[in-house]
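User: Could you check the structure of this?
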Amino acid sequence: MLSLNNPATRLLISLMAVLTSWTMLNLPLLAGAEGTVEPMNQSSLTIDRSSLNGSNIMLQVIAPSNANLQGTIKLNGKVVANLQKTRSLSLQSCLSLRACEIDLSASYNPSSAIEVKLYSTNGAINSVQQSSGSGKLQQRFSLRLN
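Assistant: Sure, the predicted structure tokens are below.
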């Protein structure tokens, strides 16, 4: 059994979370004004419940202070929060499920980088993704809990 007190185990869990399935999908999810398609970034994470050790999973969207951010956060297809500025959201309800889909969809200006973090409060999970500053944010996290 792996111990979370072991630094090598914590590093391995963090690396697994960051390196799992960063896949650009070629699905037409959002058509821009010029008819262009914004692809969705998808990240798949498999989490061992025992590594959470009673902690919570959090989602945080960080926008620059001068950004006008408008969008939504969906949990398994249902809108659970609106995005207007930097936002933190507990994903506690995902812990009772075997799988959870978290979708973020937003537009923002000025076009600067937006950071999206998925982490556990005990530090066992830490996944960070930064947008390219395109003015559109399309992100899906697929969580699998064992």
